[in-house]
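Task card 7
Instruction: Convert sequence to structure tokens.
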Amino acid sequence: MDRRHLGLLLAVGQLILWLTVFDVQGLSRTDHAVLGVFLLAVILWLSEALAYTVTSIIAVTLLFALGVTDSFAEAVSGFASTLVFFLILLMLLGNSISAVGLDDRAARRLLSGRSTPAMTIRSLATNVFGLSFLMPSAVARAVTFMPIVETMTEAYHLDEASRFRRASYIIIGHINPLASMAIMTGGGMSIISSQIMTTQITPISWLTWAIVMLPPVTVLYLGAALSVGLVYPADDTIVTDELEEADAQAALSRDERLVLAVMAGAVGLWVIGSFTGMPTILPAVLAVAILAAPGIGIITEDDVRSISWGVLFVIGAMFSILEVMQTEGTLVFVVERITEVLPFATMSTWQVVATLLLVTAVVRTMFSTASAAVIIILPIMIEFAESLALDPLFMGFSVMFLIGATTFLPFNTTAVLLSHDRGPLSISEVFRFGMVTAVLAVAVLIIAWVGYWPLVLSGLSPTG
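Output:
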């Protein structure tokens, strides 16, 4: 029996048990049903027994069919979340950057006429980080830079197993996604996390996110990039003059200028909105409207069709389930029962935090994307923090940060999966560098929790 069939069997079996056999004291029949639906969705998503969209539709339909919600509209309320539409808009904006060639322009800066493998690796890390502010998708950045790495490998006359190629694919796979956490609009995981924290704790603006996360992410990214040089030291003596220097300084085209201006305007409005209360989605709506307008047409119907609708359905369905669990008090009940079982009362504050983050890292390895892991893990950890009198905002940022930095298996992150599939990295190498980024993330979190976040979050944190 393969994973998909086993996942389907487990998902359906546990739902039947929750509906007919299990009788947990303190839980109503509605709570039993919603827990069954929640686990069914998680198991099906993890096992990929069904398409993400199909699983999501089944989950919300069961909420209504089993009487968990009074109406179907209530069962699909998560799809009305601002987050779903915000992600659609950001995906379209990300596509527009690729469509006009701004990503290639940035990547071509690597093709210097005279350079060494070590210089190219440093340039690769710098360009990936810089491009993350324009291109939210880590996968898109990975796909953009892979051909460049292959071109440079040939130019240096290096073999496919060279340290240069291994280091480059580590940057593309493991380190590249770290940059997406720096700003709130840097990727799906950041946007989802900000929405969850806004709903459960306190509103998070674009500027607040940048102040809180940009310094820790920059330190983590720099530490990880330096670690690559230690693990895979690239040769700094091989010089190639076989490549003509790319014309990265050529005049920008009309479409490139338009996209740059619109993106700069959107960022400016996000910053202004942090002070004026402007809805975060509004600048994104304006940006997409301009780029899709007649006479411009940079965003087209093809871009809309190419959106990852399965991911959006997962988000909508999970938000629907979580809303019901919060309304019914199911999530709080589960957290309280777990708190009673684990010896949190005998632990110090740091032992409690360390335990919760360890659980986060372990559970994270079960998910194929950081966004999916955040949707399920983050609300639960925030509930734990509140029930244990920890700062929920500190815990929220810590959980998101650790999830983004934890990739032990290739399938845990799409960019890593691509670098493993197309590059020279073995599963053991993926695991080892995943340990490196996880350890670095913990070190940065300790510094942020003790020294930095108390300064910048004192006026925002519910307990600060």
